[in-house]
Amino acid sequence: MSNNKYKILIVEDESNIRSFIKTILEAKGYQVLDSKNGAQGKMMFSSYYPDLIILDLGLPDIDGTEFIKEIRQSHKVPIIVLSARTQEKDKVQALDLGANDYVTKPFGTEELLARVRAALRNSIHGKETEDGQMAFSLRDLMIDYESRLVTMNREPVKLTQTEYNIVALLSENAGKVMTYSAIIQAIWGVSDRGSIKKLQVNMANIRKKLGIKPGANPYISNELGVGYRMYNE
């Protein structure tokens, strides 16, 4: 195996796709474990404790969503779903169950590698936050959690309490797609017909106050029909 400290488990039943992903990851120096079904994948996870899982949903012995549920009962390891299921409801279900990201087949090599890097960075960021890190920075954006202060280019950004809570939540999960329902539950605690519209209005105000212009490299992306993601690079 490579000397790269990151170990990645691929759970994918299609041998050609599994082999292709393994090849491109090993070329980038990652240690790679691979499994052709859910049972073998769970056994390998318990034996090797990988740093990240790339998971297909259409496994021959278990649906990938059940695999996510079982892992999330006791582990926070990043999970990237790689699936031919393209409907929004499938994406939302996987993300709400605890997947960190969702990539649809067919996929681009560079896109997958970027998602892997983002998920691993997010995992590191989460450990630092748990250990007491009190700030988040992304290019010109800085968030001081202790003082609840957000600055852009060192200038304070006047956010409402709700707007700040949304920005803080997204930054604490930087690199991960947060579904509408997950954000709404965390911010308001309830969900109703007007909740998504309320979230969208707040996000529009946040973008305006952060000075995010159309076509510019955003700090927060809108995953249409699914949710929002705060970038971490």
From TrEMBL:
DNA-binding region positions on the chain: 133-232
The organism's place on the tree of life at top rank: Bacteria
GO cellular component: cytosol; protein-DNA complex
CDD domains according to UniProt: REC_OmpR_KdpE-like, trans_reg_C
Name of protein: Stage 0 sporulation protein A homolog
Pfam families per the UniProt record, alphabetical: Response_reg, Trans_reg_C
Domain Response regulatory span(s) in chain numbering: 7-120
Keywords of this entry: Cytoplasm, DNA-binding, Phosphoprotein, Transcription, Transcription regulation, Two-component regulatory system
Function noted in UniProt: May play the central regulatory role in sporulation. It may be an element of the effector pathway responsible for the activation of sporulation genes in response to nutritional stress. Spo0A may act in concert with spo0H (a sigma factor) to control the expression of some genes that are critical to the sporulation process.
GO molecular function terms noted in the UniProt entry: cis-regulatory region sequence-specific DNA binding; identical protein binding; phosphorelay response regulator activity
Compartments (UniProt record): Cytoplasm
Gene3D superfamilies from the UniProt entry: 3.40.50.2300, 6.10.250.690, Winged helix-like DNA-binding domain superfamily/Winged helix DNA-binding domain
Domain OmpR/PhoB-type per the UniProt entry, residue ranges: 133-232
Xref: SMART domains: REC, Trans_reg_C
GO biological process, one term: positive regulation of DNA-templated transcription
Residues the record lists as 4-aspartylphosphate modifications: 56
InterPro entries per UniProt: CheY-like_superfamily (IPR011006), OmpR/PhoB-type_DNA-bd (IPR001867), Sig_transdc_resp-reg_receiver (IPR001789), WalR-like (IPR039420), WH-like_DNA-bd_sf (IPR036388)
